[in-house]
Specification:
By secondary structure, this protein is α+β, with helices and mostly antiparallel strands. It folds into two domains: 179 residues, DNA ligase/mRNA capping enzyme (D-amino Acid Aminotransferase, Chain A, domain 1, 2-Layer Sandwich); 76 residues, no CATH class. Helix content is 33%, strand content 21%. The chain contains nine helices and twelve strands. The strands form three sheets. Strands 4-3-2-5-6-7 form a six-stranded antiparallel beta sheet. A four-stranded antiparallel beta sheet has the order 8-1-9-10, with no helix packed on it. Helix 1 packs across helix 7. The longest helix has 18 residues. It is globular.
Length: 280
Amino acid sequence: MQSMPDTPPLVDAEPLTGHLWVQELPTGGQFRFQVANSGRLTFGTADRTFDTVKAVPLSHRRTAMTVSERLNRGALRTALDDPTQITFFGTATRNEGISYDWMALPPFVGTDVWSDTQDGLLAPDAATTVYERLNLPTLPAITKEAPADHTDLTQYEDGTGFPPSAWRDGAAAGILIRDKTGGRAQVWRVDVTDSIPASPPDTATDLAAQYATSDRIERTVAALRDRGHTPTVDAIRDQLVADVAREAYTNFYHDDDFVVPPDAFHAAVGERVQKHRHDQ
């Protein structure tokens, strides 16, 4: 699996040329995946790879779930004799201090596609088409095919040109800018923050009580049924844990470490789900 492409800040990037794609970039972690000839998925963060959804860290697990469920493997097999020649790159969206409409913002948004055959990244328009055919979401376009010579990128450097977000009230938090020759840059609004991380809870039981409420459990049951899954206790627990770790990431992670032992949190959520189902 190829490594994530480096995307420098706009102020440090080489001049972009030709025609530009400018897209909204949500907050989140780097995520990549590859598909074997059998259809089996290998997932990756920036520096590690994983063979199953459950092996993926909680910080990225909801993303792995989404890719596993939504990926159109048939379309991929039809398009490629050897899918291992392709590495997919994107963002594992999560709350890093900026609140989104979490029902609207997909857990995964695809950004780039690496082709071993071409020994490089596909152009932005080609990558977008690939993701659409594979039933995976990609970044919303702010502008497409804008001539670089006539595009004022300084509007993004000072934050004045950030457009409204497709996924939240207010302006976009980040912008990804790419040309068709591999040039790329990103810029973030440093003045945007919607939340302050809460103080870490004392125990996994406290954290579960805060997030695995009866209302949240029922919403998780409905979401599972909507996607054709049987809402078993284990399925509800796994879905709920992955969802809240994404939506309240800054409350679950301090200095890149989960604030309580993850296994204990899973167990505490499972107990609450079991009790809720028993009491119905």
